[in-house]
Predict the structure.
Amino acid sequence: MLSRTADHLYWMARFTERAENLARLLDVTHQMSLVPQSVAAGNQNWGAILALNSLQTAFSKTYDEANAENVLRFMVSDADNPASIYSCLRAARENAHAVRGTLTAETWESCNATWIELREQSFEQILSVGVGEFFEWVKLRSAVMRGVTFGTMLQDDALHFIRLGGLLERSDNTARILDVKYHVLRTNGDEGTTDFYQWGALLRSLSAFEVHRKVYRDVITPARVAELLMLRVDMPRSLHACVDGIVRVLNRVANSSSAETGRRAGMLHAQLHYARIDDILGKGLHEYLTDFMDRIYDLGDGIGRDFLVPAN
């Protein structure tokens, strides 16, 4: 496959997954903001989203305060913010258009229809209907695009690069959502605090609430939530499941220059496969997640170098 085609497919999937996971991150923060708390504590939680995405400087150029409405406007519909849901779905559509001939008609049409529907919605309209409903729409449209893609495309290298981009983005964003929860608990001064509502909101944001009940059949605790979302290979959005998929795809598309990237992915997979949640929490959840995100970023660099169009 031409590296330029692989590049567009990979980034189409990454931007689509990024939009969905940003919706999940904003949704869980919105749900947590409904819990009685001080204005300062609430704003700190919204500011944590900007910090985790390294967007404080860009945000401060337009907005004076990191409150709910400003952060939501910036992260949902700001066309000048390359990390907003609006910009991500626009970029996904642009990448899909560039390789329209490689995609099935159903895949292209689902991506294009999502973008057309989004651009017709103003932020005021989204607020009036409810941001929660909008986030559900983003998640649904992402699921439709993913389902159509895997249900209609030939299982060749094109599909492998779509899957690779989606898995890499999903693993990074699952870690980010967990890290936001860490910031909330650190603000409360007790990382071990059990708050059923907030942990439940976190699980629902990752479509994991029912799975948690099925696996553990007991009260929600921070350790169980972390174990489910990090180490369970049978949980689709867990770090372990994502990296397991990345290793499998890299083995299928391997070329003469990708051995080192494959080795690093294998090392990360082994670390997750043999890890124990008590050890991770003992050393610090935030530190572990930060290291994981750094290694995912490194894998992304390796994939770009080995398979995709070199950055200018």
